[in-house]
Amino acid sequence: MLAGVVAGASVALFVLYGPDRLQAEGVPVEGMRPPDPFGALLLVLACAPLAVRRRWPLAALCAGLVPETLLNAMGYGTGVSSLSGMVLLYSVASYRGLAISLVALVLTLIAFVTGAAGGPAGVASWNEYVVVAVVMVAVWGAGRSLRLRRAYLEELRDRAARLERAHAADTRAARAEERSRIARELHDVVAHHVSVMTVQAAAARRVLAADPDLAREALSAIEHTGRLAMAEMRNIVGVLRTDSRPGARAELGPQPGMRDLPALVEQMREAGLATRLRVEGEPVSLPAGVDLAAYRLVQEGLTNSLRHAGAGAKAVVTVRHEPHELDVRVEDDGRGTAPGPQPTPQSTPQPAGHGWADGWGAAREPALPPGHGLLGIRERVALYGGILNIGPLPGGGFEVRARFPLKDGQ
Prior knowledge:
Layout: H1 2-16, H2 19-24, H3 37-47, H4 57-74, H5 81-95, H6 98-118, H7 126-207, H8 212-237, H9 261-270, E1 274-280, H10 288-308, E2 314-322, E3 325-332, H11 357-360, H12 372-383, E4 387-392, E5 398-405
Helix pairs in contact: 1-3, 3-4, 3-5, 4-5, 4-6, 5-6, 5-7, 6-7, 7-8, 7-10, 10-12
Catalytic activity: ATP + protein L-histidine = ADP + protein N-phospho-L-histidine
Organism: Nonomuraea antimicrobica
Pfam families: DUF7134, HATPase_c, HisKA_3
């Protein structure tokens, strides 16, 4: 459409403003040729490349410069065909790189100078030629500015896409980390409460006929433990639930911590494991992560003592508060050190898949799928820069001990 409009306007002006009319209006026309079909054809050929300026800008410019140069050199009136040359130069500068656009500018200036030098004298002054050359350079600069702006916007879009992909990757990593955290929490909750319920159920079965009242107490303890387990699991996974109703909130509760150790010890006593809690040093306010990790370590250690230490076993939980360290230890005197070769205490991670047998001795089998409890404790302790030791004691029994570093007493 643009090529047709420019070509039509150029031919109309070429025909209407011939040498006779220009001379009547006082315009010098020395050496200017009158309109003829050949001149009109050159005008059309100079404007036609506008139709393909976006697909082949440099080729269109070269194709338009040839008839434009012939028009100037032969002394024809050019109408507005010079406008097509400006548009083609602008297209090359805005759609091609710097090197090609510079070539296009140089070719345009050369063609213009050639046509002006070879054309008839008196048609235009040199001042007008200089102005036209300056306009050409300005048009080229406008095209380059548009290309640079396009490149800048494209870079912004690409950067936004990269940031979006990075955000998506971070979201996936956060979700995976959260799933791992929830898996550790659920493992600790299920392993502990189910172990307690199993021991209490076995005790109730043994005394059901002989002492129904004692069996009833054991069943009540099982019910209470089950309710505790359900409540704690509901608190853990409640954040994953969504509700579209306005004002609806997930049922969240505080995570357990060192303040809950007395209740945990009392629960283990009711389950049949003689447990004693010792606290040394002045208790301080602990970071939430360390508080939960220490509690889970004690819970996991007592759970395994309950399952594997044997009847009549005793367990001692020792919590030592030091200025820059929290020392947590769970010891039992059970049958974990049965005769035979025993592994030495472990303080470094072992390959996954060995479960509690890695640090609890050959006589103890993992209560849940191998490796999850031990690896969960190692991950918790390592997350806060602590040191973990798990293994048999020289005089019999087993020990789980972790030392958490504290900064500035916390």
